Structures are given as structure tokens and as C-alpha cells.
Amino acid sequence: MSPKSRATPTRPPVRSKTALPAPRVAPRRIQIPWHRRRPVQALLTIIVVGLLVLGVTQGLSTWHHHQATMKAKKGVKAFDAAYQTGLTPLSNFFTQVNNSPQQFVGGVMTQATYATQTAQWLATFQALRKQLSDASPPKAIQGPRGLLVQATDIFIDGVREMQLAGTVSDTSLRKTLTDQGRNIIFHGTSVFKNAQIEEAKVVKSFHLTIGAPASALLQLPDAPAENAPAAPAPTPVPSSS
């Protein structure tokens, strides 16, 4: 074999002693968006869950409040309707009580007729008293209901005083008893008017239509002042000669 046909071994390149080593490049730091960082995501998750819980709680509270308000409104409406219906029979009483006692004391009305009327008055107020006591209104109107019951009890006391006048024959005692009965009824009217005002406020607060009270009730005066001074005697006019 000729020397030219032999494979010439490849020699590795000789590195120059003066050659510098290749610089080392630091690995590139990857920037993660702030909203994708785990602590931030955990905090956002807590905030979102908290807002959801708060929203659900507020929604349930609003719903329960609405349901309670509607239930109270329905109860107030039912109470007012029954109360206004119960006022209708009182018109006849307020008309008669302004005339019948004076007619009885003056001898114009018989004792039997007077006894019949006062018995009807008592039955009217006892029926109203039972209606108010048996009612189960919502808390919003229980205060006015209590005033109405108080006024009705006063009316009953006044009517019983007038009934007592129908059992005596002494005209002076009759007048005393009827006057006492009227004063008690006047006081009951004052309490009743205040109760009506409070009841109307509650009804109006629920945006309901307020029933018209008995017209005669508004016309009846309040209780007269105790120990009112007597009216001055008219000054005599000298006669002309």
C-alpha cells in the first residue's frame, strides 16, 4: 500500500493560550404579571368569596325584610278595615247621647225609652271592646289598638253612669248622674280621637288608604274644663222712661 493511501489522522485544533473563555450568560428572569402571582390570586379569591357571601346575606336580609313588611301591611289593612266597620254603629250613639239624657231629665223621654237606648249604647261599646280585644294586629299598630281599647272602656263607664240615672226617680239625682256620665263620655272621646290619629299615622306609613271615621265623632266636643267658671250674668239694661 502506498503511503498516500493511508488515512491521515485528524488533529484536534490547538487552542491558543491567549484565547479568552466564552462569557457565561445569566439565565433570563421571566417577569410574571402581578395578577397571576399566587399570593395575589389567593387574596383576590378571598375578596371575591367575601363579596359573594356579603351579597347573598344582604339579599336574604332584604327579602326577609320585604316579607315581614308585606305581612305587617296586610295585618294593618285588615285591622283598619275591621275597625272602620266597627265605627259605623257609633254614629247613632253620638247622635243620641247629645239629646236623650237632656230629654229624659226634662221629662220629654220616658224612662222605658231611655233605658232601651242606654242598653243599646252599652251593647255597642261592649261589641267594639270585644272586637278590639280579639284582634291580633301586627306590632306596628298595637299601640293605637291599646288606646282604642282604653277609650272604649271609658265609654262603657260613662254609659253605665247614664244607665244608673235611668233607675232613679229623683230628678235632681238624675241630672247629676247624666252630667257625670256625659263628662266621662267626653273624656273617652278625647282619648278616642287621639287613638284615631295614631291609628291613621300607622295606616298612612304603610301607604294604605285611611278609612273615614264616624262623622259624628269629629263633631262631639272634648271634655269640658273642670270647675269651669260660671258664665257672667247679663248686665241689666236700664229702661228708658
- Low-pLDDT regions: 223-241
Largest sheet geometry = none
How far apart are the termini? 192 Å
Mean pLDDT: 78
Shape: rod-shaped
* Helical residue percent band: 55-70%
How many strand segments?
0
Q: Which structural class matches the secondary elements?
A: mainly alpha
State the assembly state of the protein chains: single chain
Radius of gyration: 47 Å
- What is the helix/strand order? HHHHHHH
Task: Count the DSSP helices.
Answer: 7
Instruction: Estimate what percentage of residues fall within beta strands.
Output: under 5%
Q: How would you summarize what this structure contains?
A:
This protein has 241 residues and is an all-alpha fold. The chain has helices at 38-87, 90-97, 100-105, 111-134, 142-165, 171-205, 215-219.
